[in-house]
Design brief:
With 436 residues, this protein is of the alpha+beta class. It has two domains: 1-89 and 302-337, no CATH class; 90-301 and 338-433, Cytochrome p450 (Orthogonal Bundle), CATH 1.10.630.10. It has 15 helices and 13 strands. It has a five-stranded mixed β-sheet. A three-stranded antiparallel β-sheet has the order 1-8-7.
């Protein structure tokens, strides 16, 4: 995608400019969150970053955050901004002609169906654990996420042997999160013409075709969302039909699981580091577990929330009204607000939540300064599904096993600039089956 010279992307009046680029354009920027934090300290709550051919207007003031989350998609597109990030890693053709979007998936009845698939996925994963051993919080969460997604979008058989490891391996190679978890790797991906990613996509398409052929009428009850995806491609001849179905599955999996498994890993890791809270959860406090998931997601958020401006707009940061031209990206960084927008937010305290809201939300200068699943029109459509999947998984572990952290701290990957943080270090957890 050809982009204009950033100097032709207008922001008026000109905000102060940070003296660095973002890591997918400058791999020497090894800690972009720290760089943004320094820029905010030096330049104030509104500043710009010029990175490659892109121009970013970063905003952090309460007034600007309210305005940012109120921007209509038609004026400032989250979808396009996300695409421009993911396409650094994923083949462009994966996005061509997509017919099934994440927003299509999460009606109340669909969520109940998906949770049935989750129970099946957990049965498989727990059976592999046995009576005792050690897991890594994030590696375990990733496997659960793959099993859950494949069961939901393809069917229960896809979460079972021999299909699971085959399909999950290709999804790992097609991990769009690399674009923001390891952004410094993206120039090498671009220089390779994404050969490894295209090969993985072709193998995934082949496997989905085999699954479609192998699925018997008696298996339809366990078929997940695949029948609906296939219906949307029913007017297309082979091989484009199977290719389209498989590519929709990949994009649905990336859209729904990429951050879910990270939030699950963060929830599990934070919980075992807090034995008192772990004991309360193990004793059956279901509402506390909900609060743990929200609190861990809040603390783990490392998302650069961005909107690509589609039509000239005005953004008021409380001190200045900026005129922003099409092509500019307006952005904020959750890691710089979620843990600093109020006193004590740098600490893990699940009881700060009441339902889905912070107890002290009224004390924030703007409620938008703390974000778990977004605000307004761009609030994550999978919120209920994600929280249910996280709490159901952790509940299964705490009901069956005694858990003990074999690590002492949880540290995010320094170079990450998007999504829920991944752990920079192993997070081993010892487990032993509870006596009945």
């Amino acid at each position: 995608m050809v982009r204009p010279n950033p100097e032709r992307l207008a922001i008026s009046p000109s905000p102060p400019r940070a003296a660095f680029a973002l890591p997918w354009d400058d791999p020497t920027v090894t800690d972009p969150v720290a760089a943004l934090q320094r820029a905010r300290a030096d330049l104030g709550d509104t500043f710009e970053v010029v990175s490659g051919r892109d121009r970013y207007l970063f905003v952090f003031s309460p007034e600007a955050l309210r305005a940012f989350y109120a921007l209509p998609e038609r004026d400032a597109s989250k979808g396009l901004a996300d695409y421009r990030m993911l396409v650094r890693k994923l083949p462009e053709e994966l996005f061509a002609g997509v017919r099934t979007l994440a927003h299509d998936l999460f009606g109340a009845q669909e969520v109940e169906t998906y949770l049935g698939h989750l129970d099946h996925a957990l049965d498989l994963e727990v059976a592999e654990l046995g009576a005792q051993g050690t897991i890594d919080a994030f590696a375990f969460a990733r496997r659960v996420g793959h099993r859950l997604g494949l069961a939901c979008w393809v069917g229960d058989r896809a979460a079972e042997a021999p299909w699971f490891d085959r399909l999950a391996g290709e999804l790992d190679r097609l991990d769009g999160a690399d674009a923001f978890v390891h952004p410094a790797r993206m120039p090498a991906v671009a220089s390779s013409d994404k050969r490894a990613e295209r090969a993985a996509l072709a193998r995934f398409e082949k496997a989905v075709g085999e699954l479609l052929t192998a699925t018997r009428p008696a298996d339809r009850e366990q078929a997940g969302f695949l029948d609906e995806i296939a219906r949307r491609w029913s007017d297309t001849a082979e091989p484009e039909r199977t290719q389209g179905i498989a590519r929709d599955v990949v994009l649905l999996h990336i859209a729904t699981m990429t951050n879910l498994f990270a939030a699950l890993g963060w929830t599990l890791a934070q919980l075992v580091l807090d034995p008192e809270t772990l004991a309360r959860v193990a004793a059956g406090d279901a509402s506390l577990l909900d609060r743990c998931a929200l609190e861990s997601t809040r603390m783990g958020q490392c998302s650069v929330m961005s909107r690509t401006v589609m039509t000239a707009l005005e953004l008021d940061d409380g001190a200045t009204r900026y005129q922003v031209s099409p092509g500019v990206t307006v952005a904020t960084m959750l890691a710089l607000t979620n843990t600093s927008a109020g006193p004590g937010l740098d600490r893990y305290e699940p009881d700060r939540w009441e339902g889905s809201r912070l107890r002290d939300e009224g004390s924030l200068a703007a409620r938008e300064a703390v974000t778990t699943f977004g605000h307004g029109a761009h609030r994550c459509p999978a919120r209920r599904f994600s929280l249910s999947a996280i709490t159901r998984t952790v509940r299964r572990l705490t009901d069956r096993y005694e858990l003990e952290a074999r690590f002492t701290a949880l540290r995010p990957v320094a170079e990450q600039i998007g999504g829920v943080a991944r752990a920079a270090d192993p997070c081993p957890i010892a487990y032993r089956a509870r006596e009945l």
